[in-house]
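pasting for ref
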Amino acid sequence: MDRSKRFVLGIGAVALLVATAACDTSYYDHKTVGTVVTAESGRGLGDIEVSCVMPDGYVSDVTYTLPTLGTFELWYDEPCDAILFEDVDGAKNGGVYRAAEIDLEDPDSPIYVQLVLED
């Protein structure tokens, strides 16, 4: 293999290692999982913003529920006081849903949230 091919192969290997490290969630200390559904039908709600609310009210570490299923995994560094659920895409889910904030008493227990349509 000539020198230029080895160089390109080496760059590709480094890029793969960096991409793998960037996707690794092992550097987070905490994880909360759960499901967000409609209160009316129990159908999973996708694209709901799920975020960690810190003791001082600061919102950090955001994720979104999966389309159709409504499931989520929220990884964060410092313990949250609460988890905030917001419908940020408007009526795309079949309506606009009220935000909900759930106190996080046991981060290891799955959260099940029912969101209600706004009037």
